[in-house]
Design brief:
Mean pLDDT: 95
EC number: 4.1.2.-
Family: Belongs to the XFP family.
Shape: elongated
Strand order of the largest sheet: 12-9-13-14-16-15
Structural class: alpha/beta
Keywords: Lyase, Thiamine pyrophosphate
Cofactor: thiamine diphosphate
Helix content: 25-40%
Low-confidence stretches: none
Pfam family, one: XFP
Number of helices: 26
Strand content: 5-15%
Amino acid sequence: MSQAPDRTGGPSAEEIAALDAHWRAANYLAVGQIYLMDNPLLTRPLTPEDIKPRLLGHWGTSPGLNLVYTHLNRVIKDRDLTALAVWGPGHGGPAVVANSWLEGSWSEVYRDVPRDADGMARLFKQFSFPGGVPSHVAPDVPGSIHEGGELGYALTHAYGAAFDHPDLFVACVIGDGEAETGPLAASWHSDKFLDPVHDGAVLPILHLNGYKIANPTVLARLPEDELDALLRGYGHDPLHVEGDDPETVHRELALALDTALDRIAVIQERARVQGAVERPSWPMIVLRTPKGWTGPREVDGLPVENTWRAHQVPLPGVREDDDHRRQLEEWMRSYRPGELFDEDGRPRPEVLRYVPEGDARLGATPYANGGRLTRDLPLPGLAGHAVEVPAPGQSTSEPTQVLGGWLEELMAATAARRDFRLVGPDETASNRLDAVYGATGKTWEEKTYPTDEHLSRDGRVMEVLSEHLCQGWLEGYLLTGRHGLFSCYEAFAHIVDSMVNQHIKWLRASRRLDWRRPIASLNYLLTSHVWRQDHNGFSHQDPGFVDHILNKSPEAVRVYLPPDANTLLAAAEHVLGSRDYVNVIISGKQPTFDWLTLEQARAHCARGAGTWAWAGTEDGTREPDVVLACAGDVPTQEVLVAAGLLRRHLPELSLRVVNVVDVARLLPQGEHPHGMPDAEYDALFTRDKPVIFAYHGYPWLIHRLAYRRHGHDHLHVRGYKEEGTTTTPFDMVVRNDLDRYRLVMDVIDRVPGLGVRAVGLRQAMADARFRHHRWIREHGSDMPEVADWRWEG
């Protein structure tokens, strides 16, 4: 990052006038979007018909965002920067839309909204209007990677964007309301993970306008020395800008930006050229300006500017109230639109003096349309990592350890391109993925001790005990053109429920915009799952993240439950090559039986669900008497043990075993792209035979997915019933009635006529459960017949 010419005296009066003209134009356009649907240049007095019937939007933060956008334009143009802006106060949609229209990027993607009077009228009407664009900084807005409707994630997205983009400057505006959230508070620590050599720079701009919807903000009321100490404690070097006089604030903000960028240039030069290794104190800006600045000072006798009343629509009655409408017109004319736009509504040259050109514009940067930069990953072949399976169930592997070897090769293959990262909350080794340390270390910019392992300033494994940071970093990384994998304990993926919800909404909205290019999928590996958290207990036992995901947009979500190591490899290869999805893979890290060869696993993943003929007793001459279905590694094992018991004790029973990898296959074809046609579902599960389904998670999810199927009345699902504690692995399945003995009892109870013939076997299964309870309380481990079981097929 280069240094600009010396500006110790600050910008000249001529330069301030140009900055102020752009700022006033953006403010004018922001107000017009909230209120007007006609008469955009005020060529005649406003009438009720010019006003939108529903006034939506947020004015309070908009003048501050317009100010920052204006000044970023100047430094981008002056210094020839490659820049991206993340707008934390996403409610300030009118500001970012206004600036993208001024710079021309809006008209390039929306050609029916040109930079003239007609285009301005369309710009105003479409904002928060049916068939138009949302009020937030949504995917519809060129230059955005951050929706901002849900606050807390701006800074972590900004750092995610900067990782492995050494030439990128990311400005991040943080609203003082957003700064009160937990995720944002943790995000300040992201500077400890930013490598000045291989990463870009992030400039946090904490915008203190003092108020939220109806209350003051905490940081704005702190004494300045206390706030300064807090931010320095986070490792930043704050520059303070404060005022309500535009000329003064323009001058101080210009100086602060130049100072911050000069300091960033020095930090990067020292690290990249001189080899400095100490963690720098990165600059940031604290910008304190009035909420609703330049808007109405008073409405109906009550103060508005610099109060919470400026947050949304300061003049709520302009369509019906003549006095409000007069105030609105005076407000808009106070920006002197005749100086800003010509007779045809085009911005005048003075307004555009500091607007960059081409991809340098904030609304046109390819970093905000990451699919323009995304390259296919050099995915390694699976053959060298697959486990040998001469026969089903004769050996065991730790699936995630096998995957870790493959990920190590992927890390090595992307070492030069630096476009793949593994993130997780202090669990890479715990989740058996530590083979990756053979190719890269863990990102760490703090001091190190001789006892530390695998820490590296340029590492691409990112561990921090905040799922929010992991999620936000990875989202920012993906949205700017790279790839990644989030490894997490299953129970604690819920911490980012709301964040993944926002990302799915982003993907869904982006798919409807032809100018947005597909990005790499957001991939989760959930391990240390509910059935093997017997040692950690009830707090670590929750399989419900899948339920949350499958409630979301069907075109964007995928869930895979591979039953063994080779199937996990095949699923991982698939999801890391995909685009525009949220993929969830659930796989255990403990020794699991190997069921399928690599080729069988690939075929099984491609099908998503299928019969395991070698496990059943069908002869092909008739429908089975019962279907034993399973999804998930532990349920698969229990079903196969139950199948073995049935083969031995009821050899005349025609049994089919079905394994499901892709649970969305259970949905009807019209409800999910992976859903089965009815004929295929009926052929697999039958129309009227009992189906005993052992499922990894909460049973009602399977019922919900399959409720419209012909055989739903005959479907009986076993799964997690919120019964957990610190106990043995097998006791977890017994407590939740998912065990082999219960499954055999279910078959006996549900196959017509079998109950009377198999009463002795049913009693033996109940006795085995009782024997189990006594055994674990005496020995503290599972019975030998459980612990030493092997498939006998």
